Amino acid sequence: MAAAAATAVPAAYAAPQRSPHTSAAQGIFDIRTYGAVGDGKTVDSPAINKAIEAAAAAGGGTVLFPPGTWLSFSIRLKSHVALYLSQGATILAADSPLPNATSGYNGGIYDAAEANTAWDAYQDYGHNHWHNSLIWGEGINDISITGPGLIYGKGLSFGAGPGRPANASQRPAGTAAPLVIRPPRGNYTMFQAEQPGVGNKAIALKNCRNVLFRDFSILKGGHFGLLLTGVDNVTIDNLTIDTDRDGIDIDCCRNVRVSNCFVNSPWDDAICPKSSYALGYARATENLTITNCYVAGSYELGTMLDGTYKKFAPDVPRLARNGRIKCGTESNGGFKNITISNCVFDGCMGLALETEDGALCEDIAISNITMRDVVSAPLFWRLGARLRGPQGEHEGGHPPADRRQQSHQLQHGPSHLLHHQRHPGLSHPRRQDIERLHSASGWRLCR
């Protein structure tokens, strides 16, 4: 009893005992107050959205997810509202509609994807839609998702193809190419991203500002664990993402800090700055820092989160072991003022800077990078001439005709490798790995 008394919290500092029904007065909106059950069987997203709406109507507040499994379809974020995921809380993505079905778990569906636009052809389906997600927001500000809980995208699609039955054979249209089988990624049902009612990503934001993501984990995030498009003033800190496609995509964003994150993404990129045409105009991704992160591509889905770090067998079919940090390939707006430092690449591809769509890469500093068991070139710089976008609309870039000429020159010698990438800096990689790159491209190496 004496030991218990010595470790007890003094009454003056102890949190008062409150029922969920009285917490809103203190700015805490417990989702149980609004009907959420948390048994992993009841669909709780209607109650969660009511709690978010109540917090927004009160001028802001924190929506609390206590321990439990909160089965959900789409959750809609609002300005000035924080989500807090308690230890032991899991937001579980309900199963999407199966191919040829019109509804998913218990007749539910995810929010409809936005109508197609004239610029949808310039990037793939996942980049063009945000509302068909587990958690999404558009045109909002001052929001956060924090806490040590888990977002589990079990019922989300990683983008297996339009209306194609899961695991079905496919052949590129008009070709005699061999049939291709896309295998499942982990022991999960496959859903088709373009099908109405299907959830396609864990968290998606468009045209937002003042955003904080901290301390939570994502398991199986769908096409994107985080897709941020046109989002400014962002902090992403201490996330663990163990996923079946991209981890974090930062597209057309400004003033972003990514730190202390662990990402395992064997089938696609881990942390991926982009500058697509998804907003309908070219916008650079700029003023971005990525630091103290660990990215990997060789561990089985879920084994980073559970701590076992089980490596894939060497003969797993169609496993790219991507898992890298990459700028591009979507690059209509370009990449400016970017720092990548103190990161570890493990069993994945190397660091990539790619401008394919006509824009600049400039003022990029890379330092203190450790790589082990990389499965491709440790440094991959690409100047391409895909030029996917409206003709002439490439922020800071050369006209398309000039870019095609540069691409032709690139095929005939290394001297043009970085012709369109200005003022990059590298410090502390192994010098023998980059001496030739330096002398061929005229880079200024930071000392």
Strand and helix map with partners:
Blueprint: H1 2-7, E1 28-30, E2 39-43, H2 45-57, E3 61-65, E4 68-72, E5 75-76, E6 81-85, E7 89-93, H3 125-128, E8 135-138, E9 141-146, E10 150-152, E11 169-170, E12 180-181, E13 203-206, E14 209-214, E15 217-219, E16 224-229, E17 232-237, E18 240-242, E19 246-251, E20 254-259, E21 262-264, E22 271-274, E23 285-291, E24 294-296, E25 326-327, E26 335-341, E27 344-346, E28 351-355, E29 361-367, E30 370-372, E31 379-383, H4 400-410, E32 421-422, E33 425-427, H5 431-441
Parallel strand pairs: 1-3, 2-4, 3-6, 4-7, 5-8, 6-9, 7-10, 8-13, 9-14, 10-15, 13-16, 14-17, 15-18, 16-19, 17-20, 18-21, 19-22, 20-23, 21-24, 23-26, 24-27, 25-28, 26-29, 27-30, 28-31, 29-32, 29-33
Antiparallel strand pairs: 11-12
Structural write-up:
- The protein has 447 residues and is mainly β.
- The chain has one domain: Single-stranded right-handed beta-helix, Pectin lyase-like (Pectate Lyase C-like).
- The chain contains 5 helices and 33 strands.
- The chain has helices at residues 2-7, 45-57, 125-128, 400-410, 431-441; strands at residues 28-30, 39-43, 61-65, 68-72, 75-76, 81-85, 89-93, 135-138, 141-146, 150-152, 169-170, 180-181, 203-206, 209-214, 217-219, 224-229, 232-237, 240-242, 246-251, 254-259, 262-264, 271-274, 285-291, 294-296, 326-327, 335-341, 344-346, 351-355, 361-367, 370-372, 379-383, 421-422, 425-427.
- The strands form 5 sheets. Strands 1, 3, 6, 9, 14, 17, 20, 23, 26, 29, 32 and 33 form a 12-stranded parallel beta sheet that branches.
- The longest helix has 13 residues, at 45-57.
- The radius of gyration is 23 Å and the shape is globular.
- The model is unreliable at 1-19, 171-175, 397-423 and 428-447 (pLDDT under 50).
